[in-house]
Amino acid sequence: MNTTHVEAESLVTDMLGRLDEISGVEKVLCPPFVSLVVIKTLLKGSSVKLGAQNMYFETKGAYTGETSPLMLAELCEFVILGHSERRWHFGETDEVIHRKIEAALNYRLKPILCVGERVEENEAGRAEEVVHRQLQAALKDIRPTAGLVIAYEPVWAIGTGKAAGGEQAAATIKFIRNSLGELWTKDMAQDLRILYGGSVTGNNIAEFISESEIDGALVGGASLKAEEFLSIVSQTAAIKGS
Known about the structure:
TIM Barrel
């Protein structure tokens, strides 16, 4: 919940030219709802794609203040679902997130499904148990889809400046990939993109991206600074670009 639509337009304008020149990686911006239309216009003709930060699972109706997949389908390609802040601040359950995944896929939106444990769960050695439960619940009866993206974001690392180490994040992401292999197929799980999110910066991105299990990053506060975000994307392209 940052930037007015004027500030969002200025931020994207500041970095779009250089961002568009970076090849070999997929680049997605997910601004607040109020900025989707103006940012969609700015991105037209560029290599940068657009996503939303959340959505509701109903198409329309008496759900004042919510945004439906039908509304988003005309504006963007991706949508973030199950973000830790939605789970913990707004009480979104695994069942709600499952229904959102279904609705997004029905309207050909690509979900960026977030999973991750809280600090007390991590300290109790329950990280794998928690992310396994979240994956199983969110993807129950969901057919394998190449459009899905998974983001591992340990709650204790969101906005705290305390990122997981590269090896630690890679180990959990490997577990996530194996869990998806059991749910679907190993080949499907291997091809699925799994990101790390949690206090990613230009100073630590290489530590994560250098790990073979980590395909990219879900960037938070650092994306509000044009030079910082450009550094993250350019370093990722240098290491992962193809």
